[in-house]
Amino acid sequence: MELLEKAALHWDQMAARPDDRPILRWWESPTLRKLVDENWWRATGAGNAGEYIRRKTGRESLGLGMSIGCGTAEDEILLLKQGVLDRLILCDISNEQLDRAMIFAQEQEIDANRIIRLNYVDLSKNYHEPLDLIYWRHSLHHMFDTRAAIKWCRANLAVNGAIYCNDACPPNYMQWSETVLDWVELYRKSLPTAYLVSPFDRSTLMSSRLTPPGIEHWKAIDPTECADSAGIIPAIQDLAPKAHIAFLGGCIYALALEDIINNFDEKDEPMLRNAMRLDHFMAEAGMNFYFACVINRDDFL
């Protein structure tokens, strides 16, 4: 539990960060987020998570859902509003994140009685009732044993239940291969110098070559960060071979543009579209940061 307490403190602090900080990640840039959303729509054939779940399961409503590592849970709460779910269990080790989720639910006029709030789900035991939908949104990669987590999901699904994943699948603790780092460097070197200005010190430039922080760095900040993320795709392919996995790329938009995205704005959309083309090429070659899939119970062996 000590490791989880460290992770909970980290995510409480992340949720409380000031709004006026520099833009450092793709989801903080409206222009790049729009392009990443378009990429998600093309890869999944759906306009949002609810549509994707309905299309893949063939069901309009799935009853009881559980989101593990839900964060602020906007997407999950919208499933209640859209009628995809009747009830929702929100689970997160961060109380700050859960508080924000409940505020969002209130803003969406969702009856609080439809939501159960938990800090922890014991994956060594079955939940006390079958689950129609188990929802992983950028949280499965925080599990210490991702294969065991997927097997727990299979054991706890209702007869026609499903698992939704919109998650990360990088190497464990994001120890990227030299091949990926070479492509990232090639892209960053192609940019005009102005786009490499550091968001932390505007008088300096960021390096074209990324040096990933070591494993101990991640363990000190958040021991759960990508602890077993490399095991996710092999586990799905082995345990649920009929499930279709939509690979979403990310080595350019999430890795190469990390921190320097602060130097791009709306006028740079053509440049960012070119970045997404390279990202797609890398994804096709098997270099992916993210993926999405819906796994129906009958997809499992």
Which bin fits the share of residues in helices?
Answer: 25-40%
Identify low-pLDDT runs: none
**What is the end-to-end distance?**
33 Å
Biggest sheet, spatial arrangement of strands: 3-2-1-4-5-7-6
Q: What gyration radius follows from the Cα positions, in whole Å?
A: 19 Å
Mean pLDDT: 95
Strand content: 5-15%
Tell me the domain tally. Answer: 1
Question: What spatial form do the alpha-carbon principal axes imply?
Answer: globular
Compute the number of strand runs: 7
Q: By CATH's scheme, which homologous superfamily applies? A: Vaccinia Virus protein VP39
Report the top-level CATH class: Alpha Beta
Verbal overview:
This protein has 301 residues and is α/β, with parallel strands linked by helices. The protein has a single domain (2-299), classed as Rossmann fold, CATH 3.40.50.150. The protein is built from 11 helices and 7 strands. It has helices at residues 2-15, 30-44, 49-57, 74-82, 95-107, 146-156, 178-189, 215-221, 232-239, 251-256, 269-284, and strands at 64-68, 87-91, 115-118, 131-137, 157-168, 245-249, 290-296. It has a 7-stranded mixed sheet with strand order 3-2-1-4-5-7-6. Helix 2 packs parallel to helix 11 (269-284) and helix 6 (146-156) packs parallel to helix 9.
